Design the sequence.
């Protein structure tokens, strides 16, 4: 939540055939309109995992509902993208919503990577300056 006011959390369970039970949690804040969803798996692990391939050929295909478990991996070979298991957690969304989450995480990681590189450059520059000062005074 963004405003730190009380919001409402709703939960429901759903059993997905040949998979397992999932718990869907949705939080909404009427004050700041913040919304968040989370999906957790419950029950036992199914005996057999399945691989599903979704082809997006037309804009309507982006509206397809899907559930991605926390242990599944997403591969988008057309753009060289792989989202490894565990990195997104469980997600119940549309294909478009899932792609938006992947894009958001990519940009957050990119910002973190850039900040880390900048910090390393600053540390290296200060180390070089200290070394050159030591050389000048020796």
Sequence:
């Amino acid at each position: 939540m963004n405003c730190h006011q009380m919001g409402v959390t709703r939960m429901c369970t759903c059993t997905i055939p040949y998979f397992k039970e999932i718990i869907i949690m949705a939080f909404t804040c009427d004050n700041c309109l913040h919304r968040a969803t989370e999906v957790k798996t419950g029950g036992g692990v199914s005996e057999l995992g399945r691989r599903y391939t979704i082809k997006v050929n037309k804009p309507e295909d982006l509206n397809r509902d899907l559930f991605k478990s926390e242990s599944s991996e997403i591969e988008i070979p057309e753009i060289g993208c792989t989202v490894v298991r565990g990195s997104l957690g469980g997600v119940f969304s549309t294909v478009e919503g899932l792609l938006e989450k992947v894009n958001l995480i990519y940009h957050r990681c990119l910002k973190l990577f850039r900040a880390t590189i900048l910090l390393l450059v600053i540390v290296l520059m200060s180390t070089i300056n200290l070394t050159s000062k030591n050389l000048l005074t020796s």
Q: What stands out?
A: The chain has one helix and seven strands. The chain has a mean pLDDT of 82. Helices lie at 95-137.
